[in-house]
Amino acid sequence: MIAYATIGTNDLERAVKFYDAVLATLGGARTFANGDRMQFYGSKSTPGMLAVSKPYDEKPASAGNGSMFGLPAASKEQVDAAYAAAMAAGGTDEGAPGQRLPTFYGAYFRDPDGNKICVFKMG
């Protein structure tokens, strides 16, 4: 249902390095860029895309209170790998990988700009 989501950043180069590392563990890769303002990521296994972008109004990007982006994983091992990559790439812990509900295994972290991310495996 969602075609793409955009995550704001104040340092595109740092954000791209972070998302390159995290999304690679989930089969994601850079798809296209909009100059030095935005980088899109996609995966052959899912139709949606994720973009990291400097705000167009040129004001500072900020993480939304209550906002979170959920990224699906194919396995618990992918959740673990994405979390480890996030920590190694400068993310901060918001909840280590673990079983949250009988059918939900997830990990929570924030990117270097403070955006909250959940990587999860359902089932």
Characterize this entry briefly.
With 123 residues, the chain is an alpha/beta fold. It is 21% helix and 43% strand.
CATH topology: 2,3-Dihydroxybiphenyl 1,2-Dioxygenase, domain 1
Q: What sort of overall outline do the alpha carbons produce when their principal axes are compared?
A: globular
User: Helical residue percent?
Assistant: 10-25%
Portion in strands: 35-45%
Which homologous superfamily in CATH is the superfamily?
2,3-Dihydroxybiphenyl 1,2-Dioxygenase, domain 1
Mean pLDDT: 96
Total helices: the number is 2
**Secondary-structure element order, N to C:** EHEEEEHEEE
- Gyration radius over CA: 14 Å
Model regions low in confidence, pLDDT < 50 over at least 5 residues: none
Structural descriptors:
4-stranded mixed sheet; 2,3-Dihydroxybiphenyl 1,2-Dioxygenase, domain 1; alpha/beta
Task: Walk me through what this model shows.
With 123 residues, this protein is α/β, with parallel strands linked by helices. The chain has a single domain, classed as 2,3-Dihydroxybiphenyl 1,2-Dioxygenase, domain 1. It has two helices and eight strands, in the order βαββββαβββ. The strands form two sheets. A four-stranded mixed sheet has the order 1-4-3-2, with helices on one face. A four-stranded mixed sheet has the order 5-8-7-6, covered by helices on one side. α1 runs antiparallel to α2. It is globular, with a radius of gyration of 14 Å. The protein starts with a strand and ends with a strand. The relative contact order is 0.23. The mean pLDDT is 96.
